[in-house]
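Re: Re: ligand-bound prediction request (bumping)

Still looking for help on this. To restate: I need the protein modeled with iron/sulfur cluster bound, output as structure tokens. Inputs repeated here so nobody has to scroll up.
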Amino acid sequence: MNKILVSACLLGKRVRYDGRALTVTEHILKEWIRSGRVVSICPEVDAGMPIPRPAAEISGGDGYAVLAQKGRVITSTGADVTDYFRSGAQQALALCKEHHIKIAVLSEASPSCGSSVIYDGSFSRTKNAGVGVTTALLRKNEIRVFSQHEISAAQAALANQ
Ligand code: SF4
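Reply:
Sorry for the wait, this slipped through. Here it is.
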């Protein structure tokens, strides 16, 4: 049975920067959990960041720029947390390799997990097209990443594996 990587906050775990979850209640996700397919990851907490923690945004591009040493991840208090984000991405990739995972559903707009948009680094609630650091690393390794708004598409991809 093929497994799937899912953001911990989407599974009801209170791991977001503000100490909250972003629980998804879709039937498909519940069925994945029931059948033992789901492997949970919070790249930021698993890398050692606390809960709660200051909001962070990518400055100088998106997750691909961070992996290329061109972008940085900066908190709203001005701390450079890039190394945590790179470490969390590596841990996500290691989990995918361990469980032979080729599909992930990650939380949209996060600087780690975003898969089509992220905040622009100005802390003005402005979003740009782009991906988070974990999504960038997974996609570089041919793992398909969907958002929580694309669970049906992820299910179709899983069925076609
Ligand atoms: Fe953790 Fe990703 Fe959820 Fe942020 S979006 S809390 S990094 S799982």
